[in-house]
Amino acid sequence: MLSVFQISYCKRDNSEKLSFLKNEQNGMIRFQAFIHGKIETNETEKYYNFVLKQAENLQGVFQIDSTNSELRIRLIQVDFPFNTETDCTNTNSGNTYSCKIEIKPLEKASYRLRVFRNSKTEESSFNLFAGIFGNGYVHIE
């Protein structure tokens, strides 16, 4: 007897689907998403989701910029039975803090981009960039 169980997770109220704009140049595929977001005083995280239905020969770049040095991003590849998480590398330029993730290769999967901080001290604004590019092909949902 074969039993199949569906594993579900709670959808967070602060979860949002990323909308990518297509921008092809010189035969290279480029999809980009930009978010000007905010984490309110009583929040510590927000989630942005996207699904790559098809992906071959692609790279991903994900970056957050903010004046708050605590803000970070984590890319979560949602797979059965385990998720894979990639944390960002933090840099500072004057009073702007950046945290960046580069993924080579970016694979067919469901992804969740987590913007987070450790404390609920004050409202934090940020600019989030998500870029998918390469010489292959992609189908984003």
What would your notes on this structure say?
By secondary structure, the chain is mainly beta. The chain has one domain (16-140): Sandwich (Jelly Rolls), CATH 2.60.120.380. It is 0% helix and 62% strand. Strands 1, 2, 3, 4, 5, 6, 7, 8, 9 and 10 form a 10-stranded mixed β-sheet that branches. The relative contact order is 0.35.
From the 3D structure, determine the CATH topology.
Answer: Jelly Rolls
Order of helices and strands: EEEEEEEEEE
Low-confidence stretches: 1-12
Number of continuous helical runs: 0
Share in helix: under 10%
Average pLDDT, to the nearest integer? 87
How many E strands? 10
* Largest sheet entry: 10 strands, mixed
Summarize the structure.
The chain has 141 residues and is mainly beta. Helix content is 0%, strand content 62%.
Key phrases:
mainly beta, Jelly Rolls, single chain, disordered N terminus
